[in-house]
Specification:
Blueprint lengths: L2 H15 L11 E4 L2 E4 L2 H13 L3 E6 L3 E5 L25 H11 L20 H6 L4 H6 L3
Antiparallel strand pairs: 1-2, 3-4
């Protein structure tokens, strides 16, 4: 089975079963018939281009990455597939450092084990009353009750 055939099968699963559009990110690393496939962005772009020329896929919308569907498979109102993604306008309220950090988080693979050394710091003013009233044995043993 060729890479193009594998792409078409994976596209069919996304469109007909998951009922959503797809982008190149869906093809960077995926499993098909219990085998893991990994493709470079350039390879994905070339295969998408070939499938567009053959009239097998079509662009639905562009929001950062371009989202496609199989030819003739329409979706309702165009939406961002992954709610963590969005246009630059969606993140206008963030500082440049926050936007850079968000970009870094987006590329961390979530589908396989990895070393996690990200440390986050935030303020939550009313957290201690919630934790101290918790009936969870884990919370009580962790905080010495």
């Amino acid at each position: 089975m060729s890479a193009v055939d594998i792409f078409l099968e994976h596209m069919a699963v996304i469109v007909f079963i998951e009922k959503r559009t797809f982008s190149y990110k869906d093809f960077l690393s995926f499993e098909y018939n219990s085998k893991e496939y990994k493709f470079e962005h350039g390879t994905i772009r070339n295969i998408f281009s070939k499938l567009k020329q053959e009239g097998k896929i079509e662009r639905v919308y562009r929001s950062g990455p371009t989202f496609n569907t199989l030819k003739g498979c329409k979706f309702g109102k165009s939406i961002t597939v992954n709610h963590t993604e969005g246009s630059a306008a969606d993140y206008a309220h963030l500082s440049p450092k926050q936007r850079t950090f968000l970009q870094c988080l987006r590329v961390i693979p979530t589908d396989r084990p990895a070393i996690h050394d990200i440390r986050l710091s935030f303020t939550f003013k009313h957290l201690w009353p919630i934790l101290s009233d918790s009936t969870s044995p884990l919370i009580k043993s962790r905080f010495g009750e």
